[in-house]
Write a structure and sequence with these properties.
- The chain has nine helices and eight strands.
- It has helices at residues 2-19, 38-46, 57-67, 84-90, 100-113, 139-146, 171-186, 205-210, 220-223; strands at 28-32, 51-54, 72-75, 93-97, 117-122, 152-158, 196-198, 215-218.
- An eight-stranded parallel β-sheet has the order 7-6-5-4-3-2-1-8.
- α4 packs across α5 (100-113).
- The radius of gyration is 17 Å and the shape is globular.
- The mean pLDDT is 97.
- Bound molecules: pyridoxal-5'-phosphate.
- Pyridoxal-5'-phosphate binds next to β8 and α9.
- Residues 32, 34, 55, 76, 160, 201-202, 217-221 line the site of pyridoxal-5'-phosphate (PLP).
Length: 228
Amino acid sequence: MINKNLIAIKKKIEITATRCGRSPDDIQLVAVSKRFPATTIEKAHLAGQTLFGENYIQEAKEKKELLGPTVRFHFIGHLQSNKARIAAEIFDMVETIDRIKIARTLNKHLLSLDRRMDVLIQVNIGKDPNKSGAAPEECAFLLEQVKELEAINPVGLMTITPITDNPEASRPYFKKLAKLGKRLQTLNLLPENRIELSMGMSNDYIVAIEEGATLVRVGTALFGQRPT
Ligand SMILES: *Cc1c(COP(=O)(O)O)cnc(C)c1O
C-alpha cells in the first residue's frame, strides 16, 4: 500500500515538474509521518523514502532513536523553547521558525552541540489569526535578525494554507509565498541562486509544484488516514 502510494506520488511529482519545465530533482517529498508508528516509517524507508516530517518533538525523538541516522526528519510543528534542545539534536531542518526568540534558543543549543542547521521561516501567508507563522511584512526584519545567528542558516520559506477540498483555492497563497521569497532574495535576506519553498500537502501538492514548491509535505496520500 505505502509502496504503491509512494510510486504514484513520485510519478505525479515528476510529471508535474516536467510539465512546468522544472527538474523533478528540484522537488523533495517530505513524507509526513506524525502519529504513525516507526514501523510505518520503516516501510516507506524500505521503499526508498528517506525524508520524513514530524510535528511532535517527543514522538520524533523516539522514532529517531529507533530508526537511526539514515532516516532524516524535518520539524514541521510549532516549536516551543523547552523542546528546542531536542530539536537541535534530531532534525535535519526546522521548517517553522516564526519568531526571533525561538531562533535564538535553537541557535544556542546548536552551538553547544557543535551543529549547524538549515531552517525555513514559517509565514502566515493567509494572515489566519488561528495559525502560527510570521506575518509576511515581518519576514524581512525577522530574517535580518536570524542571519546574525551563527548556527542557523535560513534557506527559504514554509507555509500552511487554509484547509480546503479545492486545490485551486491554495494557488493564490502559493503564488504569494513564491513572490515573497523572490523579494527577500532581492533584499539579500535569502540565498541568491536558489531557495526552498515548503508548500503543498496531500490535496494540493500538484498546484504547489506548479507555483514553485521545492518541498511538498504529504501525509494522508502516502500513509492513509492518521491514527487518532
Ligand atoms: C499534517 C501536516 C501535513 C500533511 O498533511 P496531509 O493532508 O495529511 O498530507 C503537512 N504539513 C503540516 C505542517 C502538517 O501538520
